[in-house]
């Protein structure tokens, strides 16, 4: 009984530091989707069209690709926790910058800085969590990152809704000295400072401590996070052996015969790309504009966006419950099938839109069907691809290339995300049903891809991946 109690105590400690590290994920969700409520306000305030607004929304994602690219190297140079502190400071500074822009172009600059911080957080969180989590709980603890992201998205939609209501349903109205959309963008400074506080108080990852020669500190941290029956000398020897046999992986280590990269790296890149190409972020970045375009007012459309975020959270909890139980691959296949059907249904419903320009509306029952289909899509994404891709990316690569491969896969994700985000306003204006049909096609392709190429990693030790 005693060992079980202490084991739970350890697990409680691991859950706490995992949750603290996942605040980076919360900021990532918050900062990337807060723009949803501000899009209309920015467009009116600076009087710009769909191409410029697509650019301002999407430019953050290029910053994210850079941050993801650089994040792994910085984590190896400065340590996991120091790098998190840097990301937290960048979040805080960029929030204030986005809140007080002089023009649409310096707003775009601060979005890039915020994006860089998001990209860093997207790599640091999963890597740190994978390094401190015991193998039996790794899938569930790895899911904390995605849970934090969806909570960040939901909180940002709720904050946006509150500011829109206070401003009397018009985000260009003033609250005190600033317009409502400026408050939306500035509110992120609060969680950013919280992240800084937590990142300054969690232990450094044992792997990094061993890597930088601080073995006795690594032993202390391992004693806090592993169960009492763990042989600490053996764990440290194991980590040392792995570190001795692995060099810090560079891009040249990812080279293979297949189109210049190792097959496993291509699988990671494809998983990342498919996660974005189904169009999930269109729902989170533009849903308020989307619902306004079919005749729903500003604050109601923000409320619908918030309800989608709640569905996203429910789906994430389902995934956390199932990922270590039924495995990674079955969840992905279920998700792909559900997404393909719901996206095709949404495409069909949007084809009934009536009216032109500002006064578009969907007739009944198509309007209701579109709303339900969009939310079913979010649910299937959340219970599968939303969580499982991050879990897989944290564990599917062999040790010697994990950091570099994760960086490349995460960068691919940001680039795919950018392509979808920057193209949506113009595509939607051109043909909304066809745009959704294209996302449905990607969902079908993702099903075929997983069936053929993805291997199950449930319950295997990180040291066994190869």
Automatic annotation (TrEMBL):
Transmembrane segments: 12-30, 53-74, 86-102, 108-129, 141-163, 183-202, 261-286, 302-323, 330-350, 370-393, 405-428, 434-454
Cell compartments where the protein resides: Cell membrane
Domain Major facilitator superfamily (MFS) profile: 17-458
A Pfam cross-reference name: Sugar_tr
CDD domains for this protein: MFS_XylE_like
Principal location class: membrane
Annotated membrane topology: Multi-pass membrane protein
Domain of life: Bacteria
UniProt KW keywords: Cell membrane, Membrane, Transmembrane, Transmembrane helix, Transport
NCBIfam families: SP
Family of the protein in this entry: Belongs to the major facilitator superfamily. Sugar transporter (TC 2.A.1.1) family.
Record's protein name: Sugar porter family MFS transporter
């Amino acid at each position: 009984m005693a060992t079980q109690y202490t084991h739970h105590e350890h697990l409680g400690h691991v859950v706490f530091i995992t949750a603290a590290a996942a605040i980076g994920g919360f900021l990532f969700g918050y900062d990337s989707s807060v723009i949803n409520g501000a899009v209309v306000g920015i467009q009116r305030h600076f009087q710009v069209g769909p191409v410029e607004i697509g650019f301002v929304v999407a430019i953050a994602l290029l910053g994210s690709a850079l941050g993801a690219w650089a994040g792994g190297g910085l984590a190896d140079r400065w340590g996991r926790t120091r790098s998190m502190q840097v990301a937290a400071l960048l979040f805080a500074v960029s929030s204030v910058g986005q809140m007080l822009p002089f023009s649409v172009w310096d707003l775009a600059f601060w979005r890039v800085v915020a994006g860089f911080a998001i990209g860093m957080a997207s790599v640091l969180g999963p890597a740190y969590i994978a390094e401190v989590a015991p193998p039996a709980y790794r899938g569930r603890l790895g899911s904390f990152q995605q849970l934090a992201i969806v909570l960040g998205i939901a909180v940002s939609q709720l904050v946006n809704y509150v500011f829109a209501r206070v401003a009397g349903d018009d985000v260009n109205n003033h609250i005190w000295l600033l317009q409502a959309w400026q408050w939306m963008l500035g509110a992120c400074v609060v969680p950013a400072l919280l992240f800084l506080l937590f990142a300054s108080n969690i232990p450094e990852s044992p792997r990094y401590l061993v890597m930088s020669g601080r073995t006795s500190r690594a032993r202390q941290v391992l004693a806090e996070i592993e169960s009492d029956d763990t042989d600490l000398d053996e764990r440290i020897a194991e980590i040392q052996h792995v570190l001795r046999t692995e060099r810090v992986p560079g891009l040249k280590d990812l080279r293979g015969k297949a189109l210049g990269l190792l097959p496993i790296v291509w699988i990671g890149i494809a998983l990342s790309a498919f996660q974005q190409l189904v169009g999930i972020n269109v729902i989170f970045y533009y849903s308020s504009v989307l619902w306004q375009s079919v005749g729903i007012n500003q604050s109601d459309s923000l409320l619908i966006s918030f309800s989608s975020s709640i569905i996203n959270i429910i789906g994430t909890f389902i995934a956390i419950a199932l990922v270590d139980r039924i495995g990674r691959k079955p969840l992905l296949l279920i998700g792909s099938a559900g997404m393909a059907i719901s996206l095709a249904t949404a495409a069909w419903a949007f084809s009934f839109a009536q009216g032109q320009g500002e006064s578009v509306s969907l007739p009944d029952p198509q309007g209701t069907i579109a709303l339900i289909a969009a939310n079913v899509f979010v649910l299937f994404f959340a219970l599968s691809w939303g969580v499982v891709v991050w879990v897989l990316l944290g564990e599917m690569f062999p040790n010697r290339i994990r950091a570099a491969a994760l960086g490349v896969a995460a960068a691919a994700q940001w680039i795919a995300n950018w392509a979808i985000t920057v193209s949506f306003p113009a595509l939607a204006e051109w043909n909304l049903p066809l745009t959704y049909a294209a996302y449905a096609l990607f969902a079908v392709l993702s099903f075929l891809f997983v069936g053929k190429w993805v291997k199950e990693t449930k319950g295997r030790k990180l040291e066994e991946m190869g």
